[in-house]
UniProtKB/TrEMBL annotation, chain A:
Molecular-function GO terms, alphabetical: transferase activity
Protein name, per record: Succinyl-CoA:3-ketoacid-coenzyme A transferase subunit A
NCBIfam families linked to this entry: pcaI_scoA_fam
Family annotation (Pfam families): CoA_trans (PF01144)
Keyword annotations of the record: Transferase
Organism: Bacillus badius
PANTHER family, alphabetized: KETOACID-COENZYME A TRANSFERASE, SUCCINYL-COA:3-KETOACID COENZYME A TRANSFERASE SUBUNIT B-RELATED
InterPro entries: 3-oxoacid_CoA-transf_A, CoA_trans_fam_I, NagB/RpiA_transferase-like
Family annotation (Gene3D superfamilies): Glutaconate Coenzyme A-transferase
Domain of life: Bacteria
Family annotation (SMART domains): CoA_trans
From TrEMBL, chain B:
Similarity-based family: Belongs to the 3-oxoacid CoA-transferase subunit B family.
Organism expressing this protein natively: Bacillus badius
Listed GO MF terms: transferase activity
Source taxon at top rank: Bacteria
NCBIfam families (UniProt xref): pcaJ_scoB_fam (TIGR02428)
Alphabetical UniProt keywords: Transferase
Matches recorded under InterPro entries: 3-oxoacid_CoA-transf_B, CoA_trans_fam_I, NagB/RpiA_transferase-like
Official protein name in the record: Succinyl-CoA:3-ketoacid-coenzyme A transferase
Keyword Nucleotide-binding tagged: no
Length: 229, 226
């Protein structure tokens, strides 16, 4: 089975309007910039995007925001793209804010067949309003449901031809979690190597989680986001 | 250097003096980030919630855009550093494996409860790791300017912004004074150089206990440091 696709648009053929998408990255760091470019090209709307941020103004997921393709965003820190607030004030986007640890743990649960879990985080705050509270051994917790997506778009450093993935420095962030929590997982990577070239000890995401692979054509460098072939 | 920078550096340096290795420390965005440069102890390991234990300074030529801290600023890595995913990083935080968190705030009240993630009516829609750090870190140190830009106290009787947690911070460090939070009460334990107790009283809305052990009216050097 060949998981390797020639370009982003081809790999994204499974994305439909109304889908829920997980998109990796902490801001632009570890974000699948080539796949996001591909999403900007295809005709899909009313997307729910689960990602820590919505990129930056006009960069990364910020491009899709300007295109009006995002109906709802679930994340922990929208402040890094100031335009999100403007769209929100105008009622053009729905936002769900989760603590960063809750966002990541909900993905982990979603990928592991867990329906939800209780966390101490957020108890007694506005973010816990309406959530079930439960006391366990004298400590208060709130219930958080697991989250899953139709499609996950992730960024890894290297893939082998089977789909095993390794990551690079803090570009790892949410990517390995999202790889477990979606029906279809598309990985954008800096380099594709032959099966056997990655040590079994270093593989972070085993290949069973990965459905499609593309090679990155846009990467984050010291000078900013640049195109590469 | 501007006066604002001087104030931030003063607060950061004072916060660094609270850290004694061996310990794991998480530094928040803003003034807390500056604390790193005043740490000179190989047994103090810095954690950043985006997935790195072993944060180090980085020189210009070694900057890697894919190696950043929680403020998305480039950082270095120590020998013995490790990278991990966000769920593992927050398991470290929530699970009680972080000894000290140093955080910035918008407001802190006289019980030590902080607000640092939202301003009603404004487009601040980020919480990041703040709520997790408050419930998980063994000790929370707040670093903040004593007043807002227009001179009103950031140390209030009660927070008017949404709170980050019901848990109190353990210590508050400003450019004017250092407070300890004991049994949900603020105790003034130290005045910063050149600051008088009258000035602190004037610029602090929150009630606090003056825990003086010194007889000299003008010197608070004898405040209990613990």
């Amino acid at each position: 089975m060949d998981k390797i696709h020639g370009n982003a648009v081809q790999a994204l053929s499974c994305v439909q309007s109304g889908h829920t998408l997980m998109v990796g990255g902490f801001g632009l760091i570890g974000a699948p910039l080539t796949l996001i470019d591909g999403l900007a090209e295809i005709d899909v709307t009313d997307l729910t995007v689960i990602s820590n941020n919505l990129g930056e103004a006009g960069r990364g997921l910020g491009v899709l925001l300007r295109q009006g393709k995002i109906q709802k965003a679930i994340g922990s820190y929208f402040t890094s793209n100031r335009e999100v607030g403007d769209y929100y004030q105008k009622g053009e986007i729905e936002l769900q804010l989760l603590p960063q640890g809750t966002l990541s743990e909900s993905m982990r649960a979603g990928g592991a067949g867990i329906g939800g879990y209780y966390t101490k985080t957020g108890v007694g705050t506005e973010l816990a309003k309406g959530k079930e509270e439960r006391e366990i051994d004298g400590v208060k917790y709130v219930f958080e449901p697991a989250i899953r997506a139709n499609i996950a778009l992730i960024k890894a450093h290297k893939a082998d031809t089977l789909g095993n993935l390794i990551y690079y420095k803090t570009a790892r962030n949410f990517n390995p979690l999202m790889a477990t929590a979606a029906d279809v997982v598309i990985a954008e990577v800096d380099e594709i190597v032959e099966q056997g070239e990655l040590s079994p000890e270093e593989i972070v995401t085993p290949h069973l989680f990965v459905d499609k692979i593309i090679k990155a054509k846009k990467i984050l460098t010291k000078a900013g986001v640049v195109s590469c072939e | 250097m501007s006066e604002k920078n001087d104030i931030q550096e003063l607060i950061a340096k004072r916060a660094a003096s609270e850290l004694k290795g061996p310990c794991i420390v998480n530094l928040g965005i803003g003034i807390p980030t500056l604390v790193a440069k005043y740490i000179d102890d190989k047994n103090i390991h810095l954690h950043t919630e985006n997935g790195l234990l072993g944060v180090a300074d980085v020189e210009e030529e070694h900057i890697d855009p894919n190696r950043v801290n929680a403020g998305k600023l480039p950082v270095g890595e120590t020998i013995g550093a490790s990278f991990f995913n966000s769920a593992e990083s927050f398991a470290m935080i929530r699970g009680g494996h972080i000894d000290v968190a140093i955080l910035g705030v918008l407001q802190v009240d006289q019980t030590g409860v902080i607000a640092n993630w939202a301003v009603p009516g404004k487009n601040i829609m980020g919480v990041g790791g703040a709520m997790d750090l408050l419930v998980g870190a063994k000790k929370v140190i707040v670093t903040t300017t004593h007043t807002t830009k227009d001179g009103t106290s950031k140390l209030l009787k009660k927070c008017t912004f949404p709170v980050t947690s019901t848990r109190s911070a353990d210590m508050i460090i400003t450019e004017m004074a250092v407070f300890k939070v004991v049994n949900r009460k603020l105790q003034l334990i130290e005045l910063m150089p050149g600051v008088t107790i009258e000035e602190v009283r004037k610029k602090t809305e929150a009630e606090f206990i003056e825990q003086r052990i010194d007889n000299n009216e003008n010197s608070f050097a004898g405040y209990i440091r613990s």
